[in-house]
Amino acid sequence: MTTPALLPLSGRRIPTLSPGASSFPHHRATLRLSEKFILLLILSAFITLCFGAFFFLPDNSKHKRFDLGLEDVLIPHIDTPKEGKHASGQVIIHGQGGHDEHRHREEEESLRDKIRADHERALQEAKEKLRKSREELKAEIQTEKNKVMEDLKKKDVGPKPLPPVPMPKVVGVSDGEPPEPDVKEKRDKIREMMKHAWDSYRQYGWGHNELKPIAKKGHSTNIFGSSQLGATIVDAVDTLYIMGLHEEFKDGQEWIEQNLDFSVNAEVSVFEVNIRFIGGLLAAYYLSGQEVFKLKAVQLAEKLLPAFNTPTGIPWAMVNLKSGVGRNWGWASAGSSILAEFGTLHMEFVHLTYLTGNPAYYQKVMHIRKLLAKMDRPNGLYPNYLNPRTGRWGQHHTSVGGLGDSFYEYLLKAWLMSDKTDTEARKTYDDAIEAIERHLVRKSNGGLTFIGEWKNGHLERKMGHLACFAGGMFALGADGSPDDKAGHYLQLGAEIAHTCHESYDRTVLKLGPEAFKFDSGLEAVAVRQNEKYYILRPEVIETYWYMWRFTHDPKYRQWGWEAVQAIDKYCRVSGGFSGVKDVYSSNPTYDDVQQSFFLAETLKYLYLLFSSDDLLPLENWVFNTEAHPLPVLHLGNITLPGSEPAQR
Ligand code: DMJ
Predict the structure, then answer these.
(1) Which CATH number is 275's domain given?
(2) Catalytic residue from among 267, 514, 582, 591
(3) CA distance 609 to 276
(4) Residue 103 domain flag
(5) Is 625 annotated in some ligand binding site?
(6) pTM for the full predicted model
(7) Would you call 405 a catalytic residue per the annotation?
(8) Which residue stretches belong to region Disordered (predicted)?
């Protein structure tokens, strides 16, 4: 192997090996052709070997070597280690001649040892892995994944400090004990029902969205996607607080603190999550002053914002909490968003801007309001469907029940919540209600006032259970209505309350059906089998409570008590409370769902109906559409960030 070393290594010199043309000794120039060929072969073998050695060395050793070379060439010789410190922690000392060569050889040696050791370790690990069962490997992978997720979570949702803002006036958050012993007894009964509903959920459905009280296990519906977000806990904690169920409240708070996590791959309803979760968390925050509720509300709100990324700024009905991708319900007219859904965000979003200082929430809802204000309204009515891509109405269907209801409610409540300074909201409400009264409100032959549904120029004489909330809304909006019509609206509220009570009273179970007709001699009764169910809904009781607060007419407490008795008799089971499939049957079957709104709304309104008026006074509190009380924000004294002209 010494011969090649004696030859010039530069390839350029080889052709000069022709006779007489070189400075090489003569005898070498006269080499025979076969000898030359052999030499050439040896030379190319040597070159191949060098390249091979370079390419077949493991990557890290090549690079180290290369680095060393570069450093030796490019880095000026300095005494201090500075950047010259290698990963090993050893300081490289550059440029020391023969001593360097020796040192390099040693380094190469140790590098090779290290590579060998690495390979052996990798081989060993691979062998061990192969010995493991599929399950063990799966478990290992899962543990790794969990660790990565945990680390991500820590980085992702670390509590962001929120700006300090003055706490709005919160008064009358508990107690409200009625002076009359019989009323107190009734109130205690309602509190006991709440405890039964909560305890059953605690025992059989804890952490699930809702409860199946017959099967005694967790339940969920498509409004929560595939999530398991403890909807009942979040929806119920403020009711627990108001009722003075402190242990249960603490338990709920702890679950929220430790388990409520919105980084989930689930497609949820923006509206439902807003009214139940954000509304519930904000109310729990204002009532109890516990920061955790505020932080969770803000974390969730951020996840809803991508739903507004549409060509018009009208949000999608659903959003994936993880990806932020939104879409609309498949059943909605021509890909439309729903009036009652995108129109029921204002209260919560104004509070979010107030608490966070982030103008985005306020601007989003104000943008919706401005866009609606510019649109033509057939007969002054708002259709229930609006396409978020084109900004055009879908089917001309208007209702004060499902699909439309809380849009009107939030116009009125935006005004009330702003301490009556948001006069634009009040005017929009007044105009909308006037059109509704003209086109949708009718009196039946039997003298019952009802609110029908407008479908493409035709009035359907059918009223939904959901529309019964409007009795309370008319009463709540009476004060401040134009042309001194306060008395008129209070009266309209009373008439709706009466009609809805009739819809309960004309059943076997004394519980109201989902929808009832005023047609062909029928009055306030359901006709179709699939409209005869009662799913623990609150709207009729909500109206009784508002009417009670404004009139103190004892009939409202009496009607409320009838409902308590019927619910306790026909809906109570050992595992909680269930809806029933037919209120006209003396032997009804259960639907086996304890809805979260039963705890958030139905039981809360019943409890308030039998409490004194100083519990959550209406001058200071405005209830969102899921019965979560939010304090009045005296916006006259506060400038909300973003309250300058709205933009998207
Ligand atoms: C509740 O979730 C809310 O009241 C909503 O506005 C419509 N109805 C359900 C309960 O019936």
Answers:
(1) 1.50.10.10
(2) 514
(3) 21
(4) no
(5) yes
(6) 0.77
(7) yes
(8) 154-185
pLDDT at 87: 30
30 falls within a domain? no
How far lies 328's CA from each of 165, 447, 448, in Å? 36, 40, 37
Chain centre to alpha carbon of residue 636: 31
Are the C-beta atoms of 561 and 186 separated by less than 8 Å? yes
Per-residue pLDDT tens over the stretch 334-385: 899 999 999 999 999 999 999 999 999 999 999 999 999 999 999 999 999 9
User: Does some domain include residue 111?
Assistant: no
Q: What are phi and psi of 332, to 5 degrees?
A: -75, 140
C-alpha of residue 148 to centroid of ligand 1, in Å: 39
Token pair in block for residue 601: 């709304």
pLDDT in tens, 490-503: 999 999 999 999 99
Measured from the CA of 469, which atom of ligand 1 is nearest? 4
CA distance 255 to 584: 40
Among candidate residues 405, 430, 453, 601, the one labeled active-site is 405
**Nearest atom, ligand 1, residue 595 CA:** 10
* Residue whose pair of structure tokens reads 């809380």 in the numeric block: 406
pLDDT for 115 equals 77
Partner residues linked to 269 by β-bridges: 318
Q: In the numeric block, which tokens belong to residue 277?
A: 């979760």
Instruction: Name the residue type at position 605.
Output: Y
Rounded distance, CA 395 to CA 316, Å?
A: 17
Q: Is 272 designated active site?
A: yes
DSSP assignment of 243-298 equals TT-HHHHHHHHHHHHHH-------EEEHHHIIIIIIHHHHHHHHHH--HHHHHHHH
Bridge partners of residue 572, in order along the sequence:
577
Q: Which of 101, 113, 35 is nearest to 68 (CA)?
A: 101
Q: Which residues of the chain have pLDDT under 50?
A: 1-34, 50-97, 157, 645-648
**Which residue in 409, 361, 407, 362 sits closest to 384, CA to CA?**
407
Distance CA 100, CA 106 (A): 10
In a domain, 216, yes or no: yes
Q: Helix crossing, 554-570 with 486-505: angle to 10°?
A: 30
What does the radius of gyration of the chain's CA atoms come to, in whole angstroms?
38
- The count of domains in the chain is 1
| Phi–psi pair at 574, nearest 5 degrees | -65, -25
Name which of 252, 278, 274 is nearest 355 in CA terms.
Answer: 278
Nearest to 559, CA basis, from 604, 600, 498:
498
- Whole domain around residue 454: which residue ranges? 180-629
